[in-house]
Design brief:
By secondary structure, chain A is mainly α. Chain A has three helices and no strands. The longest helix of chain E has 28 residues. In chain E, helix 2 runs antiparallel to helix 3 and helix 3 packs antiparallel against helix 4. By secondary structure, chain E is mainly α. Classes of the chains: A mainly alpha (112), B mainly alpha (89), C mainly alpha (162), D mainly alpha (510), E mainly alpha (124), F mainly alpha (929). Chains in contact: A-B, A-D, A-F, B-E, B-F, C-E, C-F, D-F, E-F. The complex binds sodium ion (2 copies). Chain F: Its main location: membrane.
Chain lengths: 112, 89, 162, 510, 124, 929
C-alpha cells in the first residue's frame, strides 16, 4: 500500500508541476491547487498510513498519528485562502491586461 | 459470508466509479461529463457508507453526508455554468 | 405563535433532522434541538418564501408511500432497459400540460416525474403551463401523461388544495 | 509576571488593530483608521522595545501558548535575535505607516488592515519557535503582502503581483513538503526539539532529513531573494507603491532570518551528520547574488529598480557573511541587516515621493522637472546614498567595515571583499549617476507644482535619522549583535531553555 | 467486522441482501451511464439507479448498526437528501442539454410543439 | 581635545553658512573664514609642541569592536599638511568671496568647502588608518559636491561623477589594502603599523596590500594612468580648483604615500613602482600641460606633473628625497594656488580662459601679470623662488639614485626633460596671456580685479619669494618634524638657495634653456598632437560606464524576460539541484516498517487519482473539463483521507475542494475558456522532465518516510486529549487547543485573503462573454424554478447540519471550519439559485464585520486566559450538570471554534458576494433567442 501511495503522490505532484509550468494563469492556478492536494497527501502521510484508526478516543485501540492530520487541516484552509486569492487575481489580471498569459508581453517567451 | 458480500460490493462500486470516470473522460458533451462527475460523487459516498459498515463505525457518516450535499452543490454550479456562464448573478 | 414558529412544518422537519443527526433523544440533545430548530427558521425567515403549505398531511403520507413504491419499480424498469436490447429503446420528448401553477406543487410534481419510471422532467415551459418530459420507455406519451395526471398531479392538487 | 505576556503583545496588537480596521467605522472611516493604526504602531514599538529590554536583562523568554510547553505545544521563543528583529520591524513600520497615512492609504481599500496584518505576520515569524507555526506566519505575511502589493492597482502591478503570488504559492507547497519530511524523520515540530533530534540522526534517515533541509533552503531562498530565486523581487518592488515597497524592505529579511535561525539552530554546529548544512551553498549563492545585484544595478534605468537591486545586494552580502558560520560573521551580518533594512526602506519612500513630484518622468533615471521640494530631496538623497553605499560617516560604512573585518583572511574572504567592494563602487557610480540625472540635471522652467505632503518627508526623515542613530550607537549595537550571535551559536543551551522552561516560570502557571 | 459476524445469521443475510441490492443497482446505473446512446437516455440511469444504490446501502448500514443494540437512523438523512436533490440535478442538466441542443439518439420522438421547443419557463 | 576641534569645527561649521543663507555674502564669508582661522588659533599651541618634537594626540573611542576610534595625532607630517590646508583654505574663502557671482548659491559653496576642509584635516591628522580612510572617502564625497557645484552644466556633472568614481574606486582599493595591513599588524593604529614594518614586508600579502594602497594613492593624486579625471575636475569654480590642486585632494595621495612610508617603503617593489609611476606621470603631465589651450587645463596637467615629481621622490625614499618631496609639497601648494587664482582672475575679468583668445593682457592687468609671473617662475623652477630649490633637490635625488643598476642614468635625463617641459608650459602661461602681441576682442573688457581679490595671490607670491630666500627661517622647522615623522628618525633639514655649481644646477640650466626651445617649437607639437584630438577622457569615461550599463541592461532583458514560466522552472530546478544529491546518498530507501496490504478499492482509487491528475494536466487547454478532472482528484484525495483514518481531513478536503472549484468556475466566466496550443515540443519536453524529477523526488521522500518507523510527540496528544483538553477528537483538540495558535493564524489568513480579494475586485471591469464557448447565447432563465425551491428548502437543513457538525467537533469529526463552510455553501446555493439581489434583500449581513468578529472572538478567547494568569489561548473546560439537560461539557475551546465558524462564513461569503456583484449590474445584452 505504501508503494502505491507514494507513487500516486509522486504522479500527482508531477502532473501539478507540469501545469504550473504552463503559460496561462488559469492552468497554473489549477496546477497549484492540485499540487496542494498532493502536498496534503504527503504531509498527511508523514504520520504513516493507518487503516481503521481514526484518532477519536474510545473508537479504536490503535490511533493514527493525529498531528499531521491537524497540520494538513491548517494547510488545507490556508491553501483554500490562497487558491481563492490567486483565482481572483487571475481574473483581475485578465481584466486589466486583456490576456491571461502569465509572461510579460513583448518578451520572447510569450510566443513560445 | 457478509465479508464476502461486502468485498463484492466494494468491487462493484469501484467498477462503477471506473465506468463513471470513463464517461467523464470521454464525454462527449459537457452535460455528459457533469452527470458522470455527479455519479462519481454518489458512488464514492456509497463506498464510504460501505466502509462504515465494514469497519463497524459511525466515523464516516458525516463525510458521506457532506459528499451528498457538496456533490449536489457542485453539480448545480456546473449546470448553471453551462446555462448562464455566470454562477452568481 | 406564528411569530415564534413562522413555519411549523419546517420547524418540525428540522427537529426531526436534528434528532436523526444526533441519533439520540437525550434531554440535552432535545432541548438544544428545540432551541436551534426554533431559532433557524426565525433567522432564515426572510429567505423562506410563502410556499403553499400542505393542507392534507395524511394524503401527503399516502403520496410518499406511492412514490417510494414507484421509485423501486422505476429502478427495475430502467435496469431492464439498460441491460436489455437497444431496439427496445424508444425515447420521446413531449410536454405534460400542467393543471396547476403553484411553485411548490409544480416542483414536487417535476421531481416525482424524474424519480418515477421512465421519465425525466427537463423543462418547465413558459408560464408553468407544462413540463417537458424525456421518456425512456416504449409507452406512448399519452399513456404517460395520463398516468402522471392521475397518479400524481391529482393527488398533489388535493394535498395543496389548489 | 505581566512581562510574560509581553511576548505575544507585538503579535496581538497588530492583529486586533487590523480586525478593528475591518469594521465599517461610519461615513468617514479613514481618519479613524489612521489614528487607530498609528496608535497601534506606536504601541507595538513600545512593546517591542520593552520586550528587547526584558529579554536582554532576563534572558530568553519562552511563552508556551495554550500552556502547552514545548515540544508539544507551540511556543514563542523570544531570544535576542527574535526581539531584535521584532524591534526592527516595529521601528520600520511606524514611519512607513506615517508615510502611508498621507493619502497613500486612499488608493485602494483595506490598506490599514492589511498593513497591520503584514506587521503581525512578520513579527510572528520572528517570534515563533515552531517550524509549522513559522509556515503559518509566513502565510499570514504573504497573503497580506499579496493584498498590499496590489494596492493602487494598475496593469504592471497586477502582473507582478500575479508572478509574486504564484511563485510564493509554489514556495509554500515546498515548505510543507520540507516540514513534512523533517517531521517524518524527527517526530517533532518545535525547532529546538528538532535540533536535538536531528543531531541523533544517522545514515539514511539523516539523508532524508538533509533532503528536507535543502528543500527548505529553496523555500527560504525565495523569500530572501537569493539567486536564482530572486526574480520576483525587482519586478515586485519596482511596481508596487513606495510605502508597500518600504514595508517589504523587511520581507526579504524574514527569509534571511529564517535561514539564520534554521541553519544555525537545527542544522548548525551541533547537527552531527547535518552540521552546517547550508553553509557551502549559502556561500556560493550569496556571492552570486551579490554579483547579480551588481549587474542588476548597472542595468537598471529606474530609481525604484535600482533600490530593488540594492536589496538584492544586501541579501547577498548578508548570506555570504552569515555563511562563514562564525560569531563575528553572524554579528556583523545582523548589524548590516538592521542598517540595510532601514535605508532601503527610506530609499523606497524617497523614490516614491520623488516620482510623485517629478510627474511624468516618475522614477526613471532621466532628466526631469524640478521638484516642488527639490532641495529637501536632494539632501535626503545624499544622506541615503551615503548610507547605502557605505561611505563614511553613516551606518553603512560601519556595517561594511565590520563585515570586511569579520571575513576570514582566506580565499573566501577575498571573494567577499572583492565582490563587496565592487558592489560599493557600482553603487557609488550608479547612485551618483542617479542623483546627477534626477536631482542635478533638471529641465529649465518652473518646478512641478505637485507637492507631497510634509508628513511624507517627515517619515523619510525619521528613517534616515535612524541611520544616524545606528552610526552614533554603532558600538553598543554591535555589542548587542555580538551577544545575539553568541546566544545563537550556543545551540546546546537553546533547546534546554526552550524545552524545559526554567522552574521559576513554570511555577507561575502551576 | 468481528462485531457484524457475531450478529444472527438472518440479520447478516438481510444486511448482505441490501448491500447487494445497492451495489448491483449502482453498478447498473453506472453501466447505463457508460453504454446508453445519448445524453438523455444516459440521464435516466444514474438518476434512478444510483440513487437506489445508495438507498440499499443506507438501509444496510442502518440495520447493521441498529442490530447491535442502538437504533441508528442517521444514514437515512443521506438518502433523504439524495432523493430531494437528484431530480434537481437531473433537471438542470437536462435543461443544459436541451439548451445546447445535444444530439439525440436516432429513434427519439420529438413531440414538442415549436413553441415548446424554444419557449422555456419565464423568469420569476 | 583641541585636535578634535581642528578636525570637526569645519565639519560642524559647515552648517553655519547654511543657517546664514538669508544673510548677505560678507556676513557669510566672515563667518566662514572665522572657522579655519579659529582652527589655526587652536592649532598654534599644538604646533609648538610638534615643532618641539612631541606628538600631540587625542583619542575618543567610537567603534572599539572594529578598532575604529576617533584617534588623531599632530606629528610633523600632519602639521605640515594642516598648515597648508588651513592657510590656503583661508585664502580660498577670501578669494571665493569675490569670485562667486551674485547668482551662485554661496551658502552651499561655503558649506561644501568647509566640509571638504574638515575631511582633509581628518585625513592628515588621523592616527588610525581606518579613520584616515573614512576621511579619505569624505573628501571624495565633498569634492564631488564641489566639482558638481555648477550642476546645471553638463561638464560639471560629468566631471564630478568621474572624479567620484575614480577616487572612490581607489578609496575602496585602499580600504582593502589597509585592512590587510591592519590584519597583519594586528591593529589599525599608526604606531602599531609602523612597528610591524618587518612583519608587513615579510608577509605573503605584502605585495597585494601595497598595490591596493598605491591604487588608492595614485587615483587620488591623479598618477598615471589615473590622471584623466583631474583636468575634468576643472569644471568646478576656480577657488575649488585652486584648493583641490594645491593643498588638498590630490595631495591626499601624496600624504598617503608619506604616511605609509614607514611601514611600506624600502622594498624594491615600492621603489620601482612608485618611482616609475611618478616619473611617467611627471612626463605625461608636463607634455599635456603644454598642449592645453585652457589656462586651467594647463595648470591641471602641470599639477599632475608636479605630483608625479613628488611621487617619484617618495619612491626613491631616501632621507634627502623625502625632504625634497615634502618641501616641494609646500612650494607646489604656494605657487599652484596662486596660479589657479590668477587664472580665475583672468577668466573672471576677461571672460575666457582660452590662451588662443587671450593675449597682451599686461597692459590691462599689470598687477595680475606681476603676481602671475612670480608664481609661474616658481613653478618653472627659476631662482630665487622656492620652486627652484625643491627642483634642485629633486634633480639631485634623480642623480643620486642607483636602484635601476646600469640603467639608472635614464632617471636624471628624463627628470631634466620633465623640468624643461615644465619651463616650457610656464613660459606659455605667461607669454600667451600677457604678451604675444596686442589686445584682441574679448567677451569682457579686462582689468585688474578688486584689491582684496588679488590679496590672496599676493600673499602666495610673497610666500614663494620668502621661502625661496629664507628657507631655513620659514620652513625648516616644520620640515624637520615632517621628515622625521616619515623616516621615523630625528633629522635636521638644511636648505639653502645656493648649492654651488654642481650637476643639478647644470641640469636646471639645461631645463630652462630646453624649455625656451620647446616653447618656441610648440606649433610643431600642436600639429603632432592634433591627430590624437577628440579623445576626451570625460566622454570616454561616460561612454564606458554607459556601455557597461547597456550591456548589463541587455543581459537582463535576456535573462529576466518577465517570464513566470522561467521563474517557476528556476525554483523547481533549484529544488532538484539541492535535493537530488541528498537522495543519492541514501543506501536503502526502504525502511523496516511493514507495508499494509493492497486492496482492490485502493488500486482503483489510486488509478483514478493518477489518471484524473494526468487528465487535468493533459486537458489544460479545455479548462472546464480540467476543472472536472480536478474535482475527481479532490474527491479521491478526500476519500483516501477517510480510508486512512482521517475523517476530519476527508470532510475538510471535500468541502474546500467543492468551494474552490465553484470559485474557479466563477472565475472561468471571466477567463478565456480555452487555451490555444502554445508550447513548443522542446518546451514541453523540458517541462515534463522537470515535472518527473520533482514528482520523483516527492515520491522517493514519501516512500522513504512511509516505510520507516519514527518516534513522535503525537502520543502526548492522544494521552492528554481527554484529561487536558476535555475532548475525544484528538485532531480537533490539536486544532483548537494544543496548536490553537496555528488555527488562529489560519483563520487570520482566511480573513486577510477575503479582504485582499475585496480589494482585487474593487472597480474591476472584467471581460464577460455574451455567449458560451460554442458561440451559443446563454440560457434566458437566470433562476430555474425547481432549483430555487429546493435551494430554499435546503438552506435551513444545511444550517441544522452546520450547527450539528460544529457542536460535535470537539468529540467527533467536525468542527468550526467545516461547519462554517457548510453554512457558507448553503448560502452559495442561494446565490446560485436566487441571485445576488435576492440574497442581499433578505440577508443584509456585513460579511466583513462578521469575519472580523469571528477572528476577534477566537483571539479574545485566547486573551481571556490572561485573567486566569495563564498564557494566551490556554483552554478551560468543565462538566456542568443542569436540570433537564443533564450533564454536559463546556469548553472555552468551543468559543474559539465559534470564532473559526464565523470567520469562515464571513470570509467565504465576502469573497463570493463580492465576486457575484461584479456582473450583476452590467451583464452584456443577450442576443438572439
Ligand atoms: Na433522477
Ligand atoms: Na455575478
Amino acid at each position: 500500500m505504501e508503494t502505491l501511495f507514494s507513487v500516486t503522490v509522486g504522479v500527482l505532484t508531477a502532473c501539478s508541476v507540469f501545469l504550473i509550468l504552463r503559460g496561462r494563469s488559469f492552468p497554473v492556478v489549477v496546477g497549484i491547487t492540485m499540487l496542494s492536494y498532493a502536498v496534503n497527501l504527503f504531509l498527511f502521510s508523514t504520520g504513516r498510513l493507518t487503516i481503521d484508526g481514526a484518532p477519536i478516543l474510545g473508537t479504536n485501540t490503535e490511533y493514527a498519528d493525529p498531528l499531521p492530520q491537524a497540520l494538513v487541516l491548517t494547510a488545507i484552509v490556508i491553501g483554500f485562502a490562497m487558491t481563492a486569492y490567486s483565482v481572483i487575481l487571475a481574473v483581475r489580471t485578465r481584466g486589466e491586461i486583456g490576456t491571461d498569459e502569465v509572461n510579460e508581453q513583448d518578451s520572447g517567451e510569450s510566443s513560445r | 459470508m457478509l465479508t464476502t458480500v461486502i468485498h463484492i460490493a466494494f468491487v462493484l462500486f469501484s467498477l462503477s466509479i471506473i465506468m463513471n470516470f470513463w464517461r467523464l473522460a470521454k464525454g462527449p458533451h459537457l452535460p455528459d461529463r457533469i452527470l458522470a462527475l455527479d455519479t462519481v460523487y454518489i458512488n464514492s459516498l456509497a463506498l464510504l457508507l460501505l466502509l462504515g459498515i465494514y469497519q463497524n463505525t459511525q466515523t464516516y457518516f458525516e463525510a458521506a453526508l457532506l459528499i451528498a450535499m457538496f456533490g449536489f452543490v457542485s453539480t448545480i454550479a456546473a449546470g448553471k455554468f453551462l446555462l448562464r456562464g455566470d454562477l452568481i448573478e | 405563535m406564528s411569530k415564534v414558529f413562522p413555519a411549523p412544518f419546517l420547524t418540525l422537519s428540522l427537529f426531526a433532522i436534528w434528532l436523526l443527526l444526533f441519533n439520540s433523544i437525550a434531554p440535552g440533545v432535545v432541548i438544544l434541538g428545540l432551541i436551534i430548530t426554533t431559532l433557524i427558521p426565525l433567522l432564515l425567515r426572510p429567505a423562506w418564501p410563502d410556499f403553499k403549505t400542505i393542507k392534507k398531511p395524511h394524503l401527503a403520507l399516502v403520496y410518499l408511500v406511492i412514490l417510494i413504491f414507484d421509485i423501486i419499480v422505476a429502478n427495475f424498469k430502467v435496469a431492464a432497459l439498460i441491460l436489455g436490447r437497444r431496439k427496445h429503446l424508444k425515447p420521446a420528448l413531449f410536454v405534460f400540460p400542467l393543471d396547476m401553477t403553484d411553485e411548490l406543487p409544480v416542483t414536487i410534481l417535476a421531481s416525482t416525474i424524474t424519480l418515477t419510471p421512465g421519465t425525466v422532467s427537463c423543462e418547465i415551459t413558459r408560464g408553468r403551463r407544462g413540463i417537458l418530459i424525456h421518456a425512456f420507455s416504449d409507452e406512448t406519451p399519452e399513456e404517460t401523461i395520463n398516468v402522471i395526471r392521475q397518479r400524481y398531479e391529482r393527488r398533489l392538487k388535493e394535498i395543496f388544495q389548489c | 509576571m505581566w512581562q510574560q505576556h509581553l511576548a505575544i503583545l507585538p503579535i496581538l496588537i497588530p492583529l486586533f488593530t487590523a480586525l478593528l480596521q475591518l469594521l465599517p467605522w461610519g461615513d468617514r472611516p479613514q481618519p479613524k483608521r489612521r489614528a487607530l493604526g498609528l496608535a497601534s504602531s506606536i504601541l507595538t514599538l513600545v512593546c517591542a522595545a520593552l520586550l528587547l529590554v526584558h529579554v536582554n536583562q532576563n534572558g530568553m523568554l519562552v511563552y508556551a501558548l495554550g500552556d502547552w510547553s514545548a515540544p508539544f505545544g507551540i511556543v514563542l521563543v523570544l531570544d535576542k535575535l527574535s526581539t531584535l528583529m521584532i524591534l526592527l520591524t516595529a521601528v520600520l513600520a511606524l514611519p512607513v505607516l506615517i508615510y502611508g497615512c498621507y493619502t497613500e492609504d486612499n488608493l485602494g481599500s483595506h490598506f490599514h488592515a492589511l498593513f497591520q496584518f503584514q506587521v503581525m505576520g512578520i513579527i510572528g515569524a520572528f517570534a515563533t519557535g515552531d517550524l509549522f507555526n513559522l509556515f503559518v506566519f509566513f502565510e499570514v505575511l504573504l497573503i497580506s503582502s499579496y493584498g498590499l502589493m496590489m494596492h493602487g492597482g494598475g496593469k504592471f502591478r497586477v502582473r507582478s503581483t500575479l508572478h509574486y503570488v504564484l511563485l510564493n504559492l509554489l514556495g509554500s507547497a515546498l515548505f510543507l513538503i520540507s516540514v513534512g519530511t523533517l517531521y517524518a524523520t524527527t517526530g517533532t515540530l518545535n525547532m529546538a526539539d528538532m535540533a536535538v533530534k536531528v543531531a541523533q540522526l544517522s545514515g539514511d534517515e539523516a539523508a532524508l532529513a538533509r533532503a528536507g533541509g535543502f528543500m527548505l533552503l529553496a523555500v527560504f531562498g525565495i523569500k530572501a531573494a537569493i539567486l536564482p530565486l530572486h526574480f520576483w523581487l525587482p519586478q515586485a518592488y519596482s511596481t508596487t507603491t513606495g510605502v508597500v515597497a518600504a514595508l517589504f524592505a523587511i520581507m526579504t529579511k524574514v527569509g534571511v532570518y529564517s535561514i539564520i535561525r534554521v541553519y544555525t539552530l537545527i542544522f548548525g554546529p551541533e547537527a552531527n551528520e547535518l552540521v552546517w548544512l547550508a553553509a557551502d551553498w549559502l556561500w556560493i549563492l550569496g556571492i552570486l547574488t551579490l554579483i547579480f545585484g551588481i549587474i542588476g544595478m548597472l542595468g537598471t534605468r529606474d530609481f525604484r529598480l535600482l533600490v530593488a537591486y540594492l536589496v538584492i545586494v544586501s541579501v547577498g552580502t548578508l548570506l555570504a557573511t552569515y555563511s562563514f558560520s562564525s560569531a563575528a560573521g553572524i554579528s556583523t551580518a545582523l548589524f548590516y541587516l538592521i542598517h540595510s533594512t532601514v535605508i532601503t526602506g527610506a530609499l523606497f519612500l524617497l523614490a516614491d515621493v520623488m516620482a510623485f513630484e517629478r510627474g511624468k518622468t516618475a522614477s526613471r533615471i532621466v532628466t526631469g522637472k524640478r521638484m516642488a521640494n527639490h532641495n529637501t530631496y536632494a539632501v535626503m538623497f545624499l544622506i541615503a546614498a551615503i548610507a547605502i553605499i557605505g561611505l563614511p560617516p553613516l551606518s553603512g560604512f560601519a556595517g561594511k567595515l565590520m563585515i570586511l573585518q569579520a571575513a576570514p583572511v582566506s580565499t573566501s574572504g577575498f571573494w567577499l571583499w572583492g565582490t563587496m567592494l565592487l558592489a560599493t563602487l557600482v553603487m557609488l557610480i550608479m547612485m551618483s549617476r542617479t542623483g546627477s540625472k534626477m536631482i542635478w540635471h533638471t529641465l529649465q522652467g518652473k518646478p512641478n507644482e505637485q507637492s507631497a505632503p510634509i508628513g511624507k518627508r517627515v517619515a523619510i526623515g525619521m528613517l534616515l535619522s535612524l541611520s544616524l542613530i545606528l552610526t552614533i550607537f554603532a558600538n553598543p549595537i554591535r555589542d548587542y549583535t555580538d551577544s545575539v550571535a553568541d546566544e545563537l551559536l550556543d545551540t546546546q543551551s537553546y533547546p534546554t531553555t526552550v524545552i524545559a522552561p526554567s522552574s521559576g516560570e513554570e511555577n507561575q502557571y502551576e | 467486522m468481528e462485531a457484524l459476524n457475531q450478529l444472527p445469521l438472518w440479520v447478516q443475510w438481510v444486511i448482505a441482501f441490501f448491500i447487494l441490492i445497492g451495489a448491483v443497482f449502482a453498478f447498473i446505473g453506472s453501466l447505463g451511464l457508460a453504454i446508453l446512446p445519448d445524453f438523455f437516455t444516459r440521464l435516466h440511469a444514474p438518476t434512478k439507479n444510483t440513487t437506489m444504490g445508495i438507498g440499499g446501502t443506507v438501509i444496510a448500514a442502518i440495520i447493521s448498526t441498529s442490530a447491535q443494540g442502538t437504533l441508528t437512523l442517521n444514514e437515512l438523512l443521506i438518502a433523504i437528501f439524495l432523493f430531494l436533490t437528484a431530480p434537481i440535478s437531473a433537471h438542470i442538466l437536462a435543461k443544459a442539454a436541451l439548451h445546447t441542443e445535444l444530439p439525440k439518439f436516432a429513434p427519439t420522438r420529438d413531440l414538442r410543439d415549436k413553441e415548446d421547443a424554444y419557449q422555456h419557463e419565464t423568469d420569476k | 581635545m583641541n585636535l578634535f576641534y581642528i578636525v570637526f569645527a569645519p565639519m560642524i561649521g559647515a552648517l553655519i553658512p547654511l543657517l546664514l543663507r538669508r544673510t548677505s555674502r560678507p556676513v557669510k564669508t566672515i563667518a566662514t573664514i572665522a572657522i579655519p582661522i579659529s582652527c589655526i588659533l587652536v592649532a598654534w599651541p599644538l604646533a609648538q609642541q610638534t615643532l618641539a618634537g612631541d606628538i600631540p594626540t587625542a583619542i575618543q573611542q567610537w567603534l572599539p569592536n572594529i578598532d575604529f576610534d576617533l584617534a588623531f595625532r599632530l606629528d610633523g607630517l600632519s602639521l605640515l599638511f594642516v598648515s597648508l590646508i588651513l592657510g590656503i583654505g583661508v585664502l580660498i574663502v577670501l578669494y571665493a568671496h569675490y569670485y562667486l557671482s551674485s547668482k551662485d548659491n554661496d551658502s552651499r559653496f561655503y558649506a561644501c568647502l568647509l566640509l571638504f576642509m574638515s575631511s582633509m584635516l581628518g585625513i592628515v591628522t588621523a592616527d588610525n588608518v581606518l579613520l584616515m580612510w573614512a576621511f579619505w572617502e569624505l573628501t571624495s564625497i565633498s569634492s564631488f559636491l564641489l566639482i558638481g557645484y555648477w550642476y546645471h552644466q553638463s561638464d560639471a556633472r560629468r566631471g564630478a561623477r568621474m572624479a567620484l568614481a575614480t577616487t572612490g574606486a581607489g578609496g575602496l582599493a585602499l580600504l582593502a589594502g589597509l585592512l590587510i595591513i591592519g590584519h597583519i599588524a594586528g591593529s589599525y593604529q599608526l604606531d602599531a603599523i609602523f612597528a610591524a614594518k618587518d612583519a608587513i614586508q615579510a608577509h605573503s600579502l605584502y605585495i597585494p596590500a601595497l598595490i591596493l594602497v598605491l591604487l588608492g594613492a595614485f587615483t587620488k593624486s591623479a598618477q598615471f594612468p589615473f590622471q584623466f579625471w583631474l583636468p575634468h575636475a576643472m569644471a568646478a569654480p576656480t577657488p575649488v580648483s585652486a584648493y583641490l590642486h594645491s593643498a588638498t585632494m590630490v595631495k591626499a595621495g601624496i600624504f598617503l604615500l608619506a604616511r605609509m612610508h614607514p611601514a611600506l617603503a624600502g622594498t624594491e617593489f615600492w621603489f620601482i613602482t612608485v618611482t616609475l609611476i611618478g616619473l611617467i606621470t611627471m612626463l605625461v603631465g608636463a607634455y599635456f600641460a603644454l598642449l592645453k589651450h585652457d589656462l586651467k587645463g594647463l595648470l591641471a596637467f602641470s599639477t599632475v606633473s608636479h605630483l608625479g615629481l613628488i611621487c617619484m621622490l617618495l619612491g626613491i625614499g631616501s632621507q634627502a628625497a623625502v625632504i625634497a618631496a615634502l618641501f616641494h609639497v609646500i612650494n607646489h601648494a604656494c605657487f599652484k594656488a596662486g596660479l589657479f587664482m590668477t587664472a580665475g582672475i583672468i577668466d573672471h575679468e576677461a571672460g575666457t580662459r582660452d590662451m588662443r583668445k587671450l593675449q597682451g593682457l599686461l597692459k590691462f592687468m599689470p598687477i595680475t601679470a606681476t603676481l602671475a609671473m612670480i608664481v609661474t617662475a616658481s613653478m618653472a623652477g627659476v631662482p630665487p623662488f622656492n620652486g627652484f630649490m625643491s627642483k634642485e633637490l629633486f634633480l639631485d635625488q634623480a642623480l643620486n639614485q642607483h636602484l635601476f643598476g646600469g640603467l639608472s642614468w635614464f632617471v636624471p635625463v628624463l627628470a631634466t626633460v620633465g623640468a624643461a617641459l615644465s619651463v616650457a608650459y610656464s613660459i606659455r602661461f605667461i607669454h600667451d596671456v600677457f604678451f604675444n602681441g596686442g589686445y584682441k576682442e574679448l567677451p569682457k573688457q579686462p582689468h585688474d580685479p578688486p584689491k582684496m581679490m588679488a590679496l590672496p595671490v599676493l600673499i602666495l607670491s610673497l610666500m614663494c619669494i620668502i621661502i625661496g630666500l629664507l628657507p631655513m627661517l620659514t620652513v625648516s622647522g616644520i620640515l624637520n618634524q615632517a621628515v622625521s615623522s616619515v623616516v621615523l628618525d630625528n633629522i635636521t633639514v638644511k636648505l639653502a638657495l645656493w648649492h654651488g655649481f654642481n650637476l643639478p644646477l647644470l641640469m636646471s640650466a639645461v631645463a630652462i634653456v630646453g624649455g625656451i626651445v620647446i616653447y618656441s617649437q610648440r606649433d610643431q607639437l600642436f600639429t603632432f598632437n592634433r591627430q590624437f584630438e577628440g579623445q576626451d577622457a570625460k566622454h570616454n569615461f561616460e561612454r564606458i560606464v554607459q556601455s557597461i550599463c547597456d550591456s548589463a541592461n541587455k543581459l537582463f532583458t535576456y535573462i529576466d524576460t518577465g517570464s513566470l514560466q522561467r521563474y517557476m522552472a528556476l525554483v523547481l530546478i533549484s529544488v532538484i539541484v539541492l535535493v537530488i544529491p541528498q537522495l543519492f546518498e541514501i543506501v536503502t530507501l526502504e525502511g523496516s516498517r511493514e507495508q499494509l496490504p493492497v486492496d482492490f478499492v485502493s488500486i482503483v482509487g489510486a488509478s483514478v487519482l493518477m489518471v484524473a491528475g494526468f487528465a487535468t494536466a493533459v486537458l489544460h487547454r479545455h479548462r472546464f473539463i480540467m476543472l472536472m478532472m480536478l474535482s475527481v482528484v479532490g474527491l479521491v484525495v478526500s476519500i483516501s483521507f477517510a480510508h486512512f483514518s482521517a475523517p476530519d481531513l476527508a470532510m475538510t478536503q471535500l468541502v474546500v475542494e467543492v468551494v474552490s472549484i465553484i470559485l474557479m468556475v466563477l472565475a472561468l466566466f471571466f477567463m478565456p475558456q480555452k487555451t490555444a496550443r502554445a508550447s513548443t515540443g522542446h518546451r514541453v519536453f523540458r517541462d515534463i522532465l522537470i515535472a518527473s524529477l520533482i514528482g520523483g523526488i516527492v515520491a522517493t521522500l514519501n516512500y522513504g518516510i512511509l516505510t520507516s518507523d519514527f518516534e513522535t510527540i503525537s502520543d502526548f496528544f492522544i494521552a492528554n486529549a481527554k484529561t487536558g483538553g476535555g475532548g475525544t477528537n484528538v485532531v480537533n483538540l490539536i486544532l483548537v487547543d494544543f496548536r490553537g495558535f496555528d488555527t488562529l493564524g489560519e483563520i487570520t489568513v482566511l480573513a486577510i485573503a477575503a479582504a485582499g480579494i475585496h480589494k482585487l475586485l474593487n472597480k474591476l471591469k472584467p471581460f464577460m462573454p455574451s455567449s458560451d464557448i460554442d458561440g451559443r447565447p446563454w440560457h434566458r432563465i437566470k433562476h430555474p424554478l425547481m432549483l430555487t425551491n429546493v435551494a430554499n428548502l435546503i438552506l435551513p437543513m444545511a444550517m441544522v447540519v452546520a450547527v450539528y457538525i460544529f457542536l460535535r467537533g470537539h468529540n467527533l469529526p467536525g468542527g468550526g471550519f467545516i461547519a462554517g463552510l457548510i453554512a457558507a455553501s448553503a448560502m452559495i446555493l442561494q446565490y446560485i439559485a436566487n441571485g445576488v439581489d435576492w440574497v442581499k434583500e433578505r440577508f443584509n449581513v456585513n460579511y466583513q464585520s462578521l469575519m472580523s468578529f469571528g477572528v476577534m472572538i477566537a483571539a479574545l478567547t485566547g486573551v481571556g486566559s490572561w485573567f486566569f494568569d495563564r498564557p494566551f489561548l490556554t483552554s478551560w473546560f468543565t462538566y456542568l450538570k443542569w436540570p433537564l439537560v443533564g450533564k454536559f461539557e463546556f469548553a472555552t475551546a468551543l468559543l474559539f471554534d465559534l470564532g473559526v465558524f464565523l470567520t469562515v462564513i464571513g470570509a467565504t461569503m465576502m469573497i463570493l458576494s463580492n465576486f457575484g456583484k461584479m456582473t450583476t449590474r452590467h451583464r452584456p445584452r443577450q442576443e438572439g433567442n
